[in-house]
Sequence to fold (74 residues):
Amino acid sequence: MNRIRLILVAIISGYSISTSAQTAEMADAMRSEGKIYVVVAILLVIFAGLISFLVLLDRKVTRIEKKIAEKEQQ
Fold:
């Protein structure tokens, strides 16, 4: 089992090292064309959406937990 994990870690780390060079080239090309700002803006919108969704979900869960606690006290 440990050998399989070691092999998987080696494969994943080798893959990430090889893709980092490609990513740098892609980022340079996108930066030179001005498209990197579009990508950053889209990522910020996605993260803002996720954060707002999680905050709203937390509020709903908290409200439901309070209702359950009130019913248990009665």
